Amino acid sequence: MLKLFIVAALSWLAGLATILSWSYIFVETPSRADVFGFGTLTLITAVPIFALLYLPGLFWLRRRLGGCRPAAFFPLASGVLLNLPVVALSLFMARLKASMAVGEHTLFIAGFVVMGLTFGLGFVWYCRASTMRGALPAVAGGAQP
User: Fold this and answer.
1) Could you tell me if 53 and 72 are in contact, meaning their C-beta atoms sit under 8 angstroms apart?
2) Which of 25, 55, 89, 117 is deepest in the core (most CB within 10 A)?
3) How do residues 41-69 score in pLDDT, each as one tens digit?
4) Considering only CA atoms, which of 83, 84, 79 is closest in space to residue 120?
5) CB 10 within 8 A of CB 33
6) What DSSP character marks residue 27?
7) What are the Cα distances from residue 133, in Å, to 22, 55, 88, 130, 138?
8) Distance of CA 2 to the CA centre of its chain
9) How far apart are CA 144 and CA 64, in angstroms?
10) What's the CA gap between 30 and 16, in Å, rounded?
């Protein structure tokens, strides 16, 4: 489980780096307040998303496929499919105009897509490393390779 925690932390950092670099390229140089604000906001939202969406969704997919092949399904599932609630909520809040500016919502969505893609790749690495050591039991009810 420590490996999954490290994967989650690196995924969060990759998402935050995406937000800040896109902000630098397309909007303005991020200030200290931007770094702290986006860092705090993404961390607070990433923890439940990793725990309630990414992990259960990817473990379900692993069980359904009988392993971590094809590997491309996992980053796509967490980067696109499992991020649909994040995208929907962000677009809803942008429509209300009660929170961040529309450009900030775009940065937020892009950051979470990168977090999901990175987490999916890390999950495949975790599954393959654990399977090679025999740490993961055989998946019951999954598709036969």
Assistant:
1) no
2) 117
3) 899 999 999 999 999 999 999 999 998 98
4) 79
5) no
6) I
7) 39, 21, 39, 5, 13
8) 17
9) 10
10) 12
